[in-house]
Each structure stands twice: as structure tokens, then as C-alpha cells.
Amino acid sequence: DNFPCEDLRIIDQLWVKYSNGQFGFSVQKQIYMDELGGTKMYNE
Length: 44
Known about the structure:
By secondary structure, the chain is mostly helical. The chain has one domain (5-43). 57% of the residues lie in helices and 0% in strands. It is built from two helices and no strands. It has helices at residues 5-18, 25-35.
């Protein structure tokens, strides 16, 4: 079974909000892209 994308977005938004921007999927992605160079596949 798949987990709905919209639910993941909501979880991420709440996680970022209540951690004062310290944690969340989007925070991890930004660190990965900025600090480690990232890859194009990450966004696909």
C-alpha cells in the first residue's frame, strides 16, 4: 500500500512548524542538496 503524498506534505509541514524549522523531510532534503551536493534523482 502507498502512503498518500498529501499526507506526507502535511506531516512535513507540521514537523517543520513544531520543531521551529529544525526537522522535517523538507529540511533534510535542503541539507542534502546544499551540503552534500544532492542528486537529480532525489527529486524524481
